[in-house]
């Protein structure tokens, strides 16, 4: 029988994140530092809005673009936080999570062979989605010596006549890195010089510690060449609600909406109603969660460094990215051995690209007490392996 699976899909490896999540799910007494999901329950006012929406019978499709109240609230949100103005009718699109927004953006802009420059380590979906959309990912490494910040100089070396876009994600998953305004300005100048689009994944925009998050579209001249991707899952602890968005120039947004029309009828109705309340009332809850993540961040970074697992200071998201060189193991062996010997789940850095080899991703989106216990277990592990 012929092989019916496309070569394009066959070329993409399975998600390294899901592999370890699935293994850990079959084991008892596992402390998971692997999954990037808030351990908080969605704040009560947002939950209440969702319950009331269901009680009011809001169980039908909405506009394909999303309810106007949510798009208007999102426009106000961008204006308030970043002084960036978007037209709710032509430039904002509500999606089924930020992952769908990424899919829509790449499908809307790429023709076969178009190149997208992707700094690594990066979220596992970036290069896969470029490939699935018919494009060619061109990866460039970032380094711990530069706090995993990509530079315009490194990007420029990768630009060819087929280059169409740069895909960046800061605050970064898996490293926790946040990029400086100065570096972003240089990248914006480069994008203008080579007439490139920038796709900026800013899903962790409000989870930043003692640092400034810069909305790329707010830089001079970048509104017209930036697709901003975002969502509610991380900032508002709404992963299960599956609510995201894109903010893009009208022409690109129209193309994304066309793909969206043939893919999804609409984002979940109840989630959209709750999203309006999240944007209007959620700031104090975001700050409470951010403060707790910061407390956990200091615990895990300090603990890993004390154990000889050198860890630079992450400034955003909720990930630490320690080097495991001191163990004498490669990152895959380290993650598998730690899971089976001490019941602590982490993700090998190589799952996020070649430049992640020699590191592991540790999520601190779990309880402080569990992180303390995980560090005790890792200490026992390192006494045997380092």
Short structural description:
With 386 residues, the chain is an alpha/beta fold.
Structure description:
By secondary structure, the chain is of the alpha/beta class. It folds into two domains: 7-42 and 284-384, Aspartate Aminotransferase, domain 1; 44-281, 3-Layer(aba) Sandwich (Aspartate Aminotransferase, domain 2). It is built from 13 helices and twelve strands. The strands form three sheets. A seven-stranded mixed β-sheet has the order 2-8-7-6-5-3-4, with helices on both faces. The chain has a three-stranded antiparallel β-sheet with strand order 9-12-11. The protein has a two-stranded parallel sheet with strand order 1-10. Helix 6 links the parallel strand 3 and strand 4 (136-141). Helix 3 runs antiparallel to helix 10. It is globular and about 60 Å long. It starts with 6 loop residues before the first helix and ends with a helix.
Bin the strand percentage. Answer: 5-15%
CATH architecture of the largest domain: 3-Layer(aba) Sandwich
Tell me the CATH topology of the largest domain.
Aspartate Aminotransferase, domain 2
Mean pLDDT level:
95
Q: What does the main sheet amount to?
A: 7 strands, mixed
Q: Tell me the domain tally.
A: 2
Distance between the termini: 50 Å
Question: Which structural class do you get from the secondary structure elements?
Answer: alpha/beta
Can you write the helix and strand succession as a string? HHEHHEHEHEHEHEEEHHHEHEEEH
- The CATH class label of the largest domain is Alpha Beta
Count, helices: 13
How many strands? 12
Low-confidence stretches: none
Q: If strands are numbered along the chain, what order do they take across the biggest sheet? A: 2-8-7-6-5-3-4
| C-alpha Rg (nearest Å) | 21 Å
What coarse outline follows from CA principal-axis ratios? globular
Helical residues, percent? 40-55%
Write the CATH homologous superfamily of the largest domain: Type I PLP-dependent aspartate aminotransferase-like (Major domain)
């Amino acid at each position: 029988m012929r092989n019916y699976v496309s070569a394009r899909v066959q070329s993409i490896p399975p998600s390294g994140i899901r592999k370890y999540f699935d293994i850990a799910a079959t084991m008892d007494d596992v402390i998971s530092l692997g999954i990037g999901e808030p351990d908080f329950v969605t704040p009560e006012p947002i939950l209440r809005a969702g319950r009331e929406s269901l009680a009011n019978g809001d169980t039908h499709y909405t506009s394909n673009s999303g309810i106007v109240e949510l798009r208007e609230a999102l426009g106000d949100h961008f204006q308030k936080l970043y002084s960036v103005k978007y037209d709710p009718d032509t430039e904002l699109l509500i999606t089924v999570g930020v992952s769908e927004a990424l899919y829509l953006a790449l499908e809307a802009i790429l023709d076969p062979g178009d190149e997208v420059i992707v700094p690594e380590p990066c979220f596992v979906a970036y290069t896969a989605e470029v490939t699935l959309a018919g494009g060619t990912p061109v990866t460039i490494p970032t380094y711990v010596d530069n706090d995993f910040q990509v530079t315009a100089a490194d990007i420029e070396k990768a630009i060819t006549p087929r280059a169409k876009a740069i895909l960046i994600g800061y605050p970064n998953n898996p490293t926790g890195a946040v990029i400086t305004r100065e570096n972003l300005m240089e990248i914006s100048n480069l994008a203008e010089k080579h007439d490139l689009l920038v796709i900026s994944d800013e899903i962790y925009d409000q989870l930043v510690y003692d640092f400034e998050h810069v909305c790329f579209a707010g830089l001079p001249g970048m509104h017209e060449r930036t697709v901003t991707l975002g969502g509610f899952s991380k900032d508002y602890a709404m992963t299960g609600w599956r609510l995201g968005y894109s903010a893009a120039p009208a022409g690109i947004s129209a193309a994304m909406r066309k793909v969206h029309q043939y893919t999804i009828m609409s984002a979940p109705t109840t989630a959209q109603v709750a999203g309006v309340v999240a944007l209007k009332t959620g700031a104090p809850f975001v700050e409470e969660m951010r403060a707790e993540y910061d407390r956990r961040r200091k615990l895990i970074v300090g603990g890993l460094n004390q154990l000889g697992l050198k860890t630079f200071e992450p400034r955003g998201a909720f990930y630490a990215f320690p080097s495991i060189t001191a163990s004498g193991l490669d990152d895959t062996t380290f993650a598998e051995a730690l899971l089976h010997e001490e019941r602590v789940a982490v993700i090998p850095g190589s799952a996020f690209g070649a430049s992640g080899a020699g590191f592991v991703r540790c999520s601190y989106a779990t309880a402080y007490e569990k992180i303390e216990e995980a560090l005790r277990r890792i200490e026992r592990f390192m006494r045997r392996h380092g």
